[in-house]
Automatic annotation (TrEMBL):
Lineage: Bacteria, Pseudomonadati, Bacteroidota, Cytophagia, Cytophagales
Protein's name according to its UniProt entry: DM13 domain-containing protein
Pfam families, per database record: DM13
Residue ranges constituting the DM13 domain according to the UniProt record: 44-143
PROSITE patterns with a match to the protein in the record: DM13 (PS51549), PROKAR_LIPOPROTEIN (PS51257)
Residues making up the signal peptide according to the UniProt record: 1-21
The entry's keywords: Signal
Length: 146
């Protein structure tokens, strides 16, 4: 009897420990001061504004380059919470030919590092995507800055 209880406890522990979500490219939280200060090393390449799709979503988005690394910055970002939200860069609002940027979505001022191989001339839609239900919460279409 003790061995069955021990075996059950071991199996349950294994199941619960393996269910932890591994974050992919978690965002860096940035402050209002960091946004306001700016930086001569930062070159803003693209900007856009989030618009609602299936859920209220708002805020501004920028893609900038700093020391040869492209970053995706969310400013005053807000969306509803949902299961399995992701940040995608895609060719359209239907998540066609997307690249998953992160499996972590938070409200506020955030930055994500972009993969070097991303083609922003094609994948210019930033989506807040619910992978579980295949639903777009909101989109920001990137435009080249002047």
């Amino acid at each position: 009897m003790k061995s069955k209880i021990l075996l059950s406890a071991t199996l349950l522990s294994f199941i619960f420990l393996s269910c932890n979500k591994t974050e992919i490219n978690p965002p860096e939280i940035i402050t209002e001061e960091e946004i306001a200060m700016g930086n001569d090393a930062i070159k803003v390449l693209y900007t856009g504004d989030f618009v609602d799709d299936a859920h209220p979503t708002s805020g501004m988005v920028q893609v900038y380059e700093e020391n040869g690394v492209k970053k995706l910055r969310f400013i005053n970002f807000k969306t509803d919470s949902g299961p399995d939200l992701r940040v995608y860069l895609a060719e359209n609002t239907k998540a066609q030919n997307f690249v998953e940027i992160s499996n972590t979505v938070d409200n506020g001022n955030l930055e994500y590092t972009l993969p070097a191989e991303i083609d922003l001339s094609k994948q210019n839609s930033v989506l807040i995507w619910c992978k579980l239900f295949k639903v777009n919460f909101g989109t920001a279409v990137l435009s080249i800055t002047q």
